[in-house]
Amino acid sequence: MSATSETNENEADKLDFIRDIVASDIEANTHDGRVQTRFPPEPNGYLHIGHAKSICLNFGIAQEFGGKCNLRFDDTNPTKEDTEYVESIQNDVRWLGFEWDELLYTSDYFEQLYDWACVLIKKGLAYVDSQPFEDIRAQRGTATEPGTDSPHRNRTPEENLDLFARMRAGEFQDGEHVLRAKIDMASTHLILRDPLMYRIRHVEHHRTGNRWCIYPMYDYAHGQSDAFEEITHSICTLEFDTHRPLYDWFIEKLEIFPSKQYEFARLNLTHTVMSKRKLLELVEAGFVTGWDDPRMPTISGLRRRGYTPEAIRNFCTEIGVTRYNGLTDIVVLENALRADLNKRAERRMAVLDPIKVVITNYPEGQVEELDAVNNPEDDSAGNRKVPFGRELYIERDDFMEDPPKKFFRLGPGREVRLRWAYFLKCEDFVTDESGKVIQLNCTYDPATKGGNSPDGRKVKGTIHWVHAGSAIDAEVRILDHLLKIGNPAEIPEGTDWKEALNEDSLKVLTGCKLEPSLAEADSSLPVQFERKGYFIPDAKDSQPDALVFNQTVSLRDSWLKKKKK
Ligand code: ATP
Ligand code: MG
Known about the structure:
The protein is of the alpha/beta class. It has 14 helices and 25 strands. Helix 9 links the parallel strand 8 (233-237) and strand 9.
């Protein structure tokens, strides 16, 4: 594990191309050496692990370079936005360990954006088009052919100002008019072929109510919001690279603060979908229980599953920032979590598929308390007592009726070490009428307390166990990937992507037996069930008298092995 954390530290020292730009801007005293970034989510869904990459980048740069980072809700699309999302986003950013300088909303700029649109109209750089949207699109041309001018392109500024004011006043229906920037219908940059700036939408906005019935388009609103906030480095994902000429055009023509846009590759992960639209589909179709279902790649889902902010931040550092779109194996994310939990999670014993053991030479009615180490990776975690007695539970698959030679667990006549306890030898077993093994009769060696034999006798296997009389019952949810296929881009075009969903992504185990100290486990950090993986009480469903644990992550990656079988 130390190898992983060393790599993380080295990675953190290494600048990426965006940090390189920031560093050289500071050196050149651009913007007086000031660094101001922003994270601009649209409040139309919960944040996912892809957003975490952008958060770590924007807030991280501000932290590292003594700058500031705003949280700006890019709320220009009234139909899909909601205050529930606004709240969850703030909660998630804070949970990841970041605090914004200012909390802002693009909708707060609507008046200013309107005024600046009027400035462009007066300069002859914007006009009202009254054609149907399909016509506008058809006139756009292609990469090889220039577009066609709109018949309304040469309306006078007076006429445009009047129409635009009446659009705002609500005199027209949706789609009757739009405002377009007047740039160049033959530009080699398609984005510069008189792009839309405003459209009419008679819908209520979650913050501005019915005050507006015209709403700015992303390209117009975004860069101008950056300028209001004097953003020095406006960082976004690669698909906006073709939008940059327009971003620069608006800033140049309005003669406003010269924010600059930089693009990086978005995060794509194997075995999961990421876009908010698809995640919303899963919620609405009831495939998951909500945005915070522990199988979801959302920050709230990962949190409920037991992911730590540290693991997510380390993951973001490890994958780095590039301009090449790629696909990151979800194992990289899981390994970042394993590395963190290995250091911090306390160890406990839990039997997920129990079979009863009776130790025939252990005094009836006697219970002793044995010392168990909480975390071998962290001395400060101390020890705890675990009860031991005549009846125990062990895992069903730690026993075989007729085991092969290399099976170092229990079988008739075989001896194993019970973790923190004694050597245990299986004498015989009991079956029910169907032939299913229901009990093992064993003996223990009192001289092997603590796990070693004074006569030098060796055993190869160590298994975990739980004392039957003090065990607590729990439900344990075993979680697997959302998608059964690795690369989500390989979902065939024209098919329902939901066919790629892994129907076995949730397995519920009931009647699991836990050591009594697990009654106190809380939902802030997972524990390691020895030999089984990391688990955390479900923050919503677990009750003191009905414990429910989620599997956070297995001890090592089992997916590849499973696939090869
Ligand atoms: P989605 O496509 O999942 O709905 P989005 O890009 O529409 O996401 P926004 O709310 O607009 O979501 O995103 C806020 C910020 O997060 C943007 O700067 C966006 O570029 C960034 N972001 C979104 N998804 C990813 C991703 N997968 N990897 C990195 N950054 C991302
Ligand atoms: Mg979006």
